[in-house]
From TrEMBL:
This is Arylsulfatase B-like. SUPFAM superfamilies: Alkaline phosphatase-like. Residues 3-95 form the Sulfatase N-terminal domain. InterPro entries: Alkaline_phosphatase_core_sf, ARSB, Sulfatase_N. Belongs to the sulfatase family. It comes from Saccoglossus kowalevskii (Acorn worm). Its cofactor is Ca(2+). It holds the Pfam family Sulfatase. The keyword Isomerase does not apply. Keywords: Calcium, Glycoprotein, Metal-binding. PANTHER family: ARYLSULFATASE (PTHR10342), RE14504P (PTHR10342:SF273).
Length: 136
């Protein structure tokens, strides 16, 4: 149930506020994939379900909250990939990653609403179950 997730996130937020940590927290919340039809899920109006190459499997809602965001209260449809979180969080912390990491720093996109530096990403490279096929 969605209410269970809502309650769990609320508990974490309340604990951060109680401990005086909320103003220094960057909260990122997202799904890892689209809904499954076998679980009565729907990704409408997007085509596809989890374990497919369609947008319904990979384009999911997310939100970011924190006092360090320069622009708030807007909806972004910019392209980014889960692997970008690693580079972005390291950048926010003032650290550098090892060379050759697949992610891109998306902090200006997330915090200021700037265009994404990403213009493509790999959906899948494996050709076996549960998600056969490959796409860029």
């Amino acid at each position: 149930k969605l209410s269970v997730m809502d309650d769990a996130v609320g508990t974490v937020v309340d604990a951060l506020k109680t401990r005086g940590m909320w103003d220094d927290t960057l909260l990122i919340f997202m799904s890892d994939n689209g809904a499954l039809a076998t679980q009565s899920g729907s990704n409408w109006p997007l085509r596809g379900i989890a374990a497919t190459l369609f947008e319904g499997a990979t384009r999911v809602p997310a939100f970011i909250h924190g006092s360090m965001l320069a622009q708030t209260g807007y909806t972004s449809n910019e392209l980014w990939h889960m692997v970008d979180l690693h580079e972005t969080l390291l950048s926010i912390a003032g650290a550098n990653s090892e060379r050759g990491i697949d992610g891109i720093d998306m902090w200006k996109t997330f915090s200021m609403g700037k265009p994404s530096p990403r213009n493509e990403f790999v959906y899948n490279i494996d050709d076996f179950e549960p998600s056969p096929g490959a796409a860029i």
